[in-house]
Amino acid sequence: MPRRIFRLAAFLLVGTAAAAPAQERFTFDIESGAAVSGYNDVRIPGNTGTRFSLTGDLTSATAVFYRLRGELRVAPKHVVSVLAAPLTIDAVGKFARPVSFMGETFDAGIPVTGRYVFNSYRVSYRYEFVQTGKWRVGVGVTGKIRDAETRLISSTQNVAKTNVGFVPLVNFAVERRLSRGVALQVAGDALVAPQGRAEDVFAGVLVPLGRRVSIKAGYRLLEGGADNDEVYTFAAIHYLAVGAVVRF
């Protein structure tokens, strides 16, 4: 389902680009690097399971990630974009105590593999209310499809909690241009609500290689979760990110 929604959004984006005036600009942004778990706490079900940590009780591996974004400036101050941001992080180890997860008990001292999946597919609109020679500032809205999974695997058990859902977020971007076309950028999606919170924020630098291509490098934080009777899950993922931005 998330892939179908993302393909539909990409189709609409390309169709809008074809109808836009020739001076409007399309941007393709690819990002990769290392994703490291800061904390990743789980209790499922949220009211009866055992709380455990994929980083404290187990050891989470550093994952290689990638993200793809297509962005279209449909008018001088109006931008729409689509994003695919898959993420999978595995953890291994042994619990020091029995852990109840999804109604099954994982005994202490047995080898366990944990898997954290958080795939994100988004469609965003942003209005850039500041556009000067040095500054570009905009805010808007994002519709996110979250395709998440938390899984525990032992030699005799393989249990997972999966969740696909829609999340509205606030989109924002701030860019400060320096000399020689170099720019500092802070951009992302975030929202805090009674049901939980979500933040995905990039802070870094863009360096031009030519008129159409820039390279980027920086730090990204993905953080948030939910606390209810069904699940308790809160995670913080730290990204060391590099990439390329191509403008048409």
What can you tell me about this protein's structure?
The chain is mainly beta and 248 residues long. The chain has one domain: OMPT-like (Lipocalin), CATH 2.40.128.90. The chain is built from one helix and 15 strands. The chain has one helix at 2-19; strands at 26-43, 52-53, 59-60, 63-75, 78-85, 88-94, 99-101, 104-106, 111-131, 135-153, 158-177, 183-193, 196-208, 213-227, 232-247. The strands form two sheets. Strands 1-4-5-9-10-11-12-13-14-15 form a ten-stranded antiparallel barrel. The protein is elongated.
The CATH C-level name is Mainly Beta
Number of helices: 1
By CATH, the topology is Lipocalin
The sequence of SSEs as H and E is HEEEEEEEEEEEEEEE
Strand content: over 45%
How large, in whole angstroms, is the Cα Rg? 20 Å
Low-pLDDT sequence parts: 8-24
**What is the first-to-last residue Cα distance?**
30 Å
Count every beta strand, where a strand is a DSSP E run of 2 or more residues.
15
Q: How many separate structural domains?
A: 1
Provide the CATH superfamily.
OMPT-like
Strand order of the largest sheet: 1-4-5-9-10-11-12-13-14-15
Mean pLDDT: 92
Which structural class do you get from the secondary structure elements? Answer: mainly beta
Report the CATH architecture. Beta Barrel
Specify the overall morphology. Answer: elongated
Task: Describe the structure in brief.
With 248 residues, this protein is mainly beta. It has one helix at residues 2-19, and strands spanning 26-43, 52-53, 59-60, 63-75, 78-85, 88-94, 99-101, 104-106, 111-131, 135-153, 158-177, 183-193, 196-208, 213-227, 232-247.
